[in-house]
Design a protein that fits this description.
The complex is a heterodimer. In chain A, about 50% of the residues are buried. Chain A has 3 domains: about 90 residues, Elongation Factor Tu (Ef-tu), domain 3; about 110 residues, 3-Layer(aba) Sandwich (Rossmann fold); about 45 residues, Dihydroorotate dehydrogenase B (pyrk subunit), domain 3. Chain A contains 9 helices and 15 strands. A 7-stranded mixed sheet of chain A has the order 10-9-8-7-11-12-15, sandwiched between helices. A 6-stranded antiparallel sheet of chain A has the order 1-2-5-4-3-6. A two-stranded antiparallel ribbon of chain A has the order 13-14. Chain A is of the alpha/beta class. By secondary structure, chain B is an alpha/beta fold. In chain B, the strands form 4 sheets. A 5-stranded parallel sheet of chain B has the order 3-2-1-4-16. A 5-stranded parallel sheet of chain B has the order 6-14-7-8-9. In chain B, strands 10, 11, 12 and 13 form a 4-stranded antiparallel sheet that branches. In chain B, helix 4 runs antiparallel to helix 5 and helix 4 packs across helix 7. Classes of the chains: A alpha/beta, B alpha/beta. Chains A and B meet through helix 1, strand 6, strand 13, helix 8 and helix 9 of A and strand 5 and helix 12 of B. The complex binds flavin-adenine dinucleotide (FAD) and FE2/S2 (inorganic) cluster. The site of flavin-adenine dinucleotide (FAD) has 42 residues of chain B, from helix 8, helix 13, helix 15, helix 16 and helix 17.
Chain lengths: ~280, ~475
């Protein structure tokens, strides 16, 4: 259980692992996530399920080494076990059966968008994907995305590959160029999802986002993950993680995401695990 | 003539203990236990037993302590109470067994809880008899949730020969005893001991399994389980729905306590999970949960830790002893006060709690006088952490994913009070999942009752539900 079968470096700071867990593999649907713990005194952190294989009993997780727990997770090698892994959590994404969907993935957010694109593609929905990163070395899962997209656009902030600019700028260009689509799914860092929602808002284009707040239990017990959607408090771990992006209170979500920024620094520095350089 | 005063409990000094997480009440020594046991009048018709939700044979075990027969004393308790080391520490004795003690007429009641704890701790120190794993009867029963209710049902069923598996969503078993009640009131070592005992009886505990997500109750029946006991507790925290509640620095008591107890945030950065250490902490509510939350705040270094409660002192639902302890430690109480808004600074952090003064009006449905706001009495309390301890309700994941398993609109599973049978055949439920947040002893009692009924059902013709 929870053995790491495959480990790949997607970029210098992004890793992909394939983990054996028959329970999660059997039940996982696009949009769901797991909570894991790397060591006995470790935190519980959520990671979106990037892929699953019911035959092989595996789930794929992609993460960026940004804090102590992801740094420690990145140190595990093939054959090691993740101490605790629970899931699948959250509500599966509600995906359409027809029409056209634009999938927008920013940075490590490409990973959670992949299973949705796969499922949409399988259902015969036209999938137009826009994936982006700061520069070309940080683009992840390009081949996998290409395999389940009818059109794939690549963007980099520095112009080192593809379109120069943000994924939301590319989306605007496509819409203004006459693109017809029924909905947009955007996953990535908060500023990127927010910009995407601001881009689609004037067009009244339905935009789903996948929220990734701080969590503890992941089952609705603590409320650490709460955000405001349409003026109402929602627990992302049980009501989400997918929400109508035009209804999300982004300013609040951004502030809440930074609640432990100081402590994160202390944790990385004091663990002497080679992180935080 | 019996001594009027009960033997005092040795306690850590308030000023000192308010800054550490070690146990507050240190437990009776043998001499103290003998002195206290000697006060018991050994009533012919003992009312204390009537006051105990699981009818522990109180005069009998106290008599055995008096005779220094400690092993026999703990055995008597364990006939009806499978978690004496826990109950001795956390039961509201003053409203149960001790409230019926005849000594109350002339002085203080006998300290039943303290003696129960003494017997249980004696056993832990002197080696508990390791239980024999009973022979299997080949029947599988699943239990959802490893809190006091689930552990008790599992233990009783295992003793009857069932092959029991508990599925627990967190990474550690114990329920509220592990994630909610703090170390200084209930050391985690005590809880782990109880869990080990249940395991020694042959019960399997599968952690990291959320029933309703990882597996469903339907799956459990497909896997050959013949009965399921749902003891998933009342885990969903309530909020007030006032402005500013999602500011940084506002916690539910569940999050606050889970970070501190389960995730050991008080040991950060040695342990990886952080918690904000406030200078001025306000806790809203006055139950056990609120007392635990506010006392944790002191131990994390708060300069000022206060309780805000909309009713008056007399209505506080917390155990009397914990209220006293909190007061001694320096917790401030603001009665007849109700928050109306959390005030934030420009960076989205809490900086104050706006409250309104209340007065008591006509009695409400609960028979308590209803607090009503006094117009124009708003004021702001400066603070940097606000903790909402307003109560919890059962999590709907299981009822939503189990066809035929019905719940009340407030979330509690519908179950027969005596047997625990739900609206779904072969599914029993009990503890906080049915009653909403209540007590350890009631959750345990429900587990016992359900185990008994499961056994009766599975050993009978199984044709009537
Ligand atoms: C801070 C605090 C202090 C308290 N103090 C006292 C006190 O002093 N005295 C007293 O008598 N009572 C006290 N109580 C109340 C008492 O702890 C509870 O009434 C009691 O624990 C209920 O037991 P339970 O077994 O029904 O549920 P819980 O202890 O809540 O256990 C339920 C378990 O089920 C698990 N679970 C939930 N959903 C699922 C799922 N879908 N799948 C798998 N597992 C699941 C949970 O993780 C949990 O471990 C306190 C409660 C709190 C929160
Ligand atoms: S993470 Fe605790 S409620 Fe969502």
């Amino acid at each position: 259980m929870n053995e790491i079968l495959v480990k790949k470096n997607l970029t210098p700071v992004t890793k992909l692992i394939v983990v054996k867990n028959p329970f999660v593999a059997a039940k996982a649907e696009p949009g769901q996530f797991v909570i894991l713990r790397v060591r006995e005194n470790g935190e519980r952190i959520p990671l979106t399920i990037a892929d699953f294989d019911r035959e092989k009993d595996t789930v794929t997780l992609v993460f960026q080494e940004v804090g102590l727990s992801t740094i420690l997770l990145g140190k595990l090698e093939v054959g090691d076990r993740i101490l605790n892994l629970v899931g699948p959590l959250g509500v599966p994404a509600e995906l359409p059966d027809s029409g056209t969907v634009v999938a927008v993935g920013g940075g490590v957010g490409v990973a959670p968008i992949l299973p949705k694109c796969k499922e949409l593609y399988r259902r015969g929905v036209k999938v137009i994907s826009i994936i982006g990163a700061r520069s070309k070395d940080l683009i992840i899962l390009e081949d996998e995305m290409r395999a389940c997209s009818h059109e794939l656009h690549i963007c980099t902030d520095d112009g080192s590959r593809g379109f120069k600019g943000f994924v939301s700028d590319k989306l605007k260009e496509l819409i203004d160029g006459g693109l017809k689509c029924d909905e947009v799914v955007a996953v990535g860092p908060i500023p990127m999802m927010r910009a995407t929602c601001e881009t689609t808002r004037p067009y009244g284009l339905k935009t789903w986002v996948s929220m990734n707040p701080i969590m503890v239990d992941g089952t609705g017990m603590c409320g650490a993950c709460r955000i405001t959607v349409g003026g109402k408090t929602k627990f992302v771990c049980v009501d989400g993680p997918m929400f109508d992006g035009h209804e999300v209170d982004w300013a609040e979500a951004w502030l809440r995401a930074g609640m432990y920024r100081d402590e994160e620094k202390v944790a990385v520095e004091s663990c002497q695990c080679g992180g935080g350089k | 003539m019996a001594v009027k005063q009960r033997t005092p409990m040795p306690m850590q000094d308030p000023a000192e203990r308010a800054r550490n997480f070690s146990q507050v009440a240190m437990g009776y020594t043998e001499e103290m236990a003998l002195a206290e046991a000697a006060r018991c009048l050994q009533c012919r018709n003992p009312q204390c037993v009537v006051g105990c939700p699981v009818s522990v044979q109180i005069p009998r075990f106290i008599g055995l302590i008096k005779d220094k027969k400690y092993r026999e004393a703990i055995d008597v308790i364990k006939e009806t109470n499978s978690l004496p080391a826990v109950c001795g520490r956390v039961c509201p004795q003053e409203s149960q067994c001790e409230s019926k003690c005849v000594l109350l007429r002339t002085g203080q009641p006998i300290a039943i809880g303290r003696l129960e704890r003494f017997a249980a701790d004696w056993e832990a120190k002197n080696g508990a008899a390791t239980p024999e794993k009973p022979a299997s009867n080949g029947k599988k029963v699943a239990v959802v949730g490893a809190g006091p209710s689930g552990l008790t049902a599992a233990g009783d069923l295992a003793k009857l020969g069932y092959e029991v598996t508990i599925y627990e969503s967190l990474h550690e078993p114990g329920g509220v005893l592990i994630y909610g009640i703090p170390e200084f009131r209930l050391p985690k070592e005590v809880v782990r001991r109880e869990v080990e005992y249940v395991k020694a009886l042959g019960v399997k505990i599968e952690t990291d399994v959320v029933v309703g997500r990882t597996i469903t109750i339907e799956d459990l029946f497909d896997d050959g389980f013949e009965a399921v006991y749902v003891a998933s507790g009342a885990g969903l925290p309530m909020f007030m729905r006032i402005p500013g509640e999602n500011l940084n620095g506002v916690y539910s008591a569940n999050e606050w306590l889970t970070r501190i107890n389960l995730m050991k945030a008080y040991l950060f950065p040695e342990w990886d999970t952080p918690v904000k250490r406030g200078k001025r902490v306000v806790v809203v509510g006055a139950g056990n949960v609120a007392m635990d939350a506010v006392r944790c705040a002191l131990r994390l270094g708060a300069e000022e830790a206060s309780i805000v409660y909309r009713r008056s002192r007399a209505e506080m639902p917390a155990r009397a002893e914990e209220v006293e302890n909190a007061e001694e430690e320096g917790v401030k109480f603001h009665f007849l006060t109700n928050p109306v808004e959390v005030i934030g600074d420009e960076k989205g952090w809490v900086k104050g709690l706006k409250c309104v003064k209340m007065e008591l009006g006509e009695p409400d449905q609960s028979g308590r006088r209803r607090p009503v706001p006094i117009a124009g009495s708003e004021f702001v309390m400066d603070c940097d952490i606000v903790i909402m301890a307003l109560g919890t309700s059962p999590n709907p994941i299981i009822s939503q994913t189990t066809p035929g398993l019905n719940a009340h609109s407030w979330g509690g599973l519908i179950a027969d009070e005596k047997t625990g049978r739900t609206t779904r055949e072969r599914v029993w439920a009990g503890g906080d999942a049915v009653t909403g947040s209540a007590t350890v002893i009631l959750a345990m009692g429900a587990g016992k009752a359900a185990a008994k009924d499961i056994h009766e059902f599975l050993s009978g013709p199984q044709d009537k539900w």
